[in-house]
């Protein structure tokens, strides 16, 4: 029996190269070895206001991105979260064993709620409980995510352990899979912040659907540090971030990258980096155009059916253990 992985992304805005390097790239690499479930988490998206027609379109567009990135529907189950009602149902159950204090400590709530708990949505507050439900429903062994999701994954583990202790062994306790390189790609405009879909400064993110000209301009405008050498250095996060992107896309070692740029200046480095990113995006964007809506639905609907059969089984056990009958 293969071990199982679960992961997902939100159909909120355009995916960027950070989403790809931190998550999607690893989903593709892991799908041979694991039984993989990749979800389009549209219920997470509505924790912040969304325009309905934009959300509807973004949901299918995200399925295109998964497929173009190399997620293979013959190997992996791809589905839309809202097609499996058990996600919302288990969220209620897990909310009842979650504690206000532990959710208040979640840094993403503090960031996205902009520190204003009075005005922040309750859904944004309970977002990590929905994420725990996503993962635990599938008896997941491994969850490939970027560094920003590590804290949420810890909560998923805590909730699984708490439920198992209080009601008997029910959930597998999942392990995080956080890549060594690419787990936290930073904004090109502010290396203290992660690259983000919702960043108002569009120059901070390289979107997967950016055209070559836009990519090149964004990289040329990327902030650099006061030094002159091209190397990994914790005290120089801007150049280290750009070099990480170069390293992962070229699949060279850190030492090879540093040696390659020895004696070269920032201008030369940025030109080469832009070429590498553009050459990576070109075939990716061609593949995105290959999938029409009908093809997507023919993948997503059976995906949801397969997911639902496993999710329903877990939820039935949960209800039994808790004494909920109906
Ligand atoms: N900058 C990043 N570097 C590496 N990995 C990242 N991820 C997100 N940003 C980076 C990983 O991408 C996966 C899908 O993310 P998501 O759709 O759940 O969105 P998010 O984590 O909330 O971050 P975004 O993409 O920046 O969106 P917004 O702006 O809406 O918050 C996850 O595995 C995530 O770790």
Q: Care to give the gist of this entry?
A:
With 326 residues, this protein is mostly helical.
How would the blueprint of this fold be written?
Blueprint: E1 4-9, H1 17-30, E2 35-40, H2 42-45, H3 52-69, E3 76-80, H4 86-95, H5 100-104, H6 107-112, H7 122-137, E4 142-144, H8 150-167, E5 175-177, H9 212-221, H10 237-250, H11 254-260, H12 266-288, H13 293-322
Parallel strand pairs: 1-2, 2-3, 4-5
Helix pairs in contact: 3-12, 4-7, 4-13, 7-8, 9-12, 10-12
Residues 9-10, 12, 18-19, 21-23, 145-146, 148-149, 183-185, 194-198 line the site of adenosine-5'-tetraphosphate.
Alpha-carbon Rg, integer: 21 Å
- Going across the biggest sheet, name each strand in turn: 1-2-3
* Count of alpha and pi helical runs: 13
Using the coordinates shown, work out and report the CATH topology of the largest domain: Rossmann fold
Outline type = globular
Please give the largest β-sheet.
Answer: 3 strands, parallel
- CATH C-level class of the largest domain: Alpha Beta
Category from helices, strands and their pairing? mainly alpha
Q: Helical percent range? A: 40-55%
Distinct small-molecule ligands in the complex: adenosine-5'-tetraphosphate
Number of domains: 2
CATH architecture of the largest domain: 3-Layer(aba) Sandwich
Mean pLDDT: 95
Strand content: 5-15%
* CATH homologous superfamily classification of the largest domain: HUPs
SS elements, strand count? 5
Distance between the termini: 33 Å
SSE pattern? EHEHHEHHHHEHEHHHHH
Low-confidence stretches: none
